Amino acid sequence: MKILSHFAILLTTTASILNVGLGNAEDAKSQLSVHEIRAILNSIPPYLPGSEVSAEIDVFGSTSMDALAHGWASGFNKFHPKAKVVVSDEGSETVFDRLAKSPSSLGMLSRPVVEADLARLKQLGLKQPIAVMVAREGLGVFVNESNPIQSISHDQFTSLFCIANGDQKSTPMTWSAVGVEGDMGEEPVEVIARTPISGTQAFLKNFVFQGQTMREPAEAFDSNVEVVKELESTKNGVAICGLRCGGHSLRLVGLLNGDTTIPGDDHSVLMGRYPLIRPLTLVLDVGQDSDQARATREFVRYALHQAGQSQDILAGFFPFDPPTLLAEIAKLENSSAEAGN
């Protein structure tokens, strides 16, 4: 009876978190597609603790995932009140050195993690590193509201952020090159970006622009908040950041597919129509068997299940489709079993 009672409390807590997540989403300015989100969340298994956790869990990396990690920590503590989750955001590309020093910890990267990344971690001493996708984020091209541009083609998108010939120094570009007329058309394009150690810049360089030489930014910042603030005061600026990062004085530029503008809304993201999507990824070493390592694995289990995925919504991100999430859950469980943990 005690066990059944315990699980009843856990299930009630999970439902409460889910309802709060959806309620807040409905009240947000940019409404989530509540019906679609609810259908996804209802298809995800509820989180049931595999074991009691009381160790400290060290989570670090992506600044874009900072709010999400804190949301997970708060929700996780409802199930594991003795656990302590410490979150630090220093940039995605700092994860590798941090994991080498503390292999029982958890790294956050706001970009895909490829086999070369896992091989690098093994070279740094990790036993069996794996990458688990836990959420997805739509990125958008933003300009100051004074810029009249409404939409851009794929070629225009590339020309705004990349140099045509990578062997040449970045040459000034005016807004007239992408069809802007009037006084703004004569203004130089000023790219406002994240710093090189951010997952955002790594994702853009290696996965969106596939190694093309990107334009030197006029300013580079550690966080999306700073990027948005700078763009609000830079009339000729342009930046790429999360769809939820836009402010009142910014405009989201539409992305063209032929003659059709693909809206940067929730439905397009959830249905897979919106093209500028990146995964948010957790990296851990399932080969570690310390108390901290076991706590880290349990934390990732939480993030992948229903209660954790509702935190994705609260933080302004999107859950993956159920088949992808179930595959990531299976990856974590199977890899841990293979490692004897």
Automatic annotation (TrEMBL):
Superkingdom: Bacteria
Is Signal one of the keywords?
yes
Keyword Signal tagged: yes
- Gene3D superfamilies per the UniProt record, alphabetical: Periplasmic binding protein-like II (3.40.190.10)
Query: What SUPFAM superfamilies does the entry give?
Result: Periplasmic binding protein-like II
Q: Which residues form the PBP domain?
A: 53-304
Pfam families, per the entry: PBP_like_2
InterPro entries in alphabetical order: PBP_domain, Phosphate_ABC_transporter
Q: Which UniProt keywords apply?
A: Signal
Q: What is this protein called?
A: PBP superfamily domain protein
Organism of derivation = Novipirellula artificiosorum
